[in-house]
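Batch job 17 of 40 flagged for manual review because the log was empty.
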Amino acid sequence: MKSPFTGKNMKIVKEFRTLNFRKDSFKILSHLYKCEDTGQKFEDDAFAQLNYNQLVNQYRVKYAIPFPDQIIAIRKKYNLSATKMSEILGFGANSYRQYESGEVPNLSNAKLIQLAENPREFKKLIVLCGTLKQKFIDKLNNKINTLIEEEKVYKTEKQIEDYFFGTSLPNSITGFKTPDFKKFSEMIIYFTETLQPWKTKLNKLLFYADFTMFKQSGFSISGTKYKALPMGPVPDKFNSIFEYLANKDEIDIYYTNLANGGTGEQFRPNKNRKFNADLFSKEELGVMKNIVERFKNVSTNEIIEISHKEKAWIENQAERKFIDYNYSFDLNI
């Protein structure tokens, strides 16, 4: 960004600031441009959004208010428009669409949205809505009954995914995203297709993709939790996740005996499984592509060394802690 006073490129500065949101105060790491000649500081649209996201994310966590991705997922589950969701929940006509776009619901509306996530509770809300036509109600109830039956059919698979990812609500350890096993699996498939990496390198690619996205937007891609282990940052329960995906023929893992007596695991694409880009935004796809470009010619040992220079690893590895996504603002790449 160029200074409006001098036309010169301005320096990026980061400083902790305490800001207010709905009578609550929160500390954020504010990103700004500074004109060296005048000392004036400015935000462009990207920094303004990043700073705002940091602020409201903390408010959402404090009051257990659903995040936009959760709000969108609830509506899509029932194949409804945002306008219809607003009508059923008793909101203003455009309210649900605004909540999906990032506006923060008030506490009472947030509770109704969370209630709607449960198909059995959503049925009750439909009964309480007096403006729906019977034909629409019957169609929607059929959809809800199907969802309830699917819960029974896929219960075991859901339990396995919950074991891998837990049932964490969005917070700073998940990058303020609901942990999304399908999206994380697709990230693994993407890096497997593009780079055919060894396991240790794959773990770092996933870490850098999620944390780089957070650095740019205030949100991770997948909601994955990462731990600081001796070889660098890794997804939680990564071995079990990789084996599960290999057993489902999502990826192929080839094992090689190494000179040091250990076993290397290289990830290769499964011929029957292709990457599904539809799960990702344009920005998320751009981040993953940039990570491939950055590390495609970097060896496993080199990417370990690079990750060991990250503050995210240095300050958490001694106790093997989960890494707070706010460390993304200190990434070296």
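Reviewer: the log was empty due to a logging misconfiguration, but the result itself is present. The first strand starts at residue 11 and ends at 21. Unflagging and moving on to job 18.
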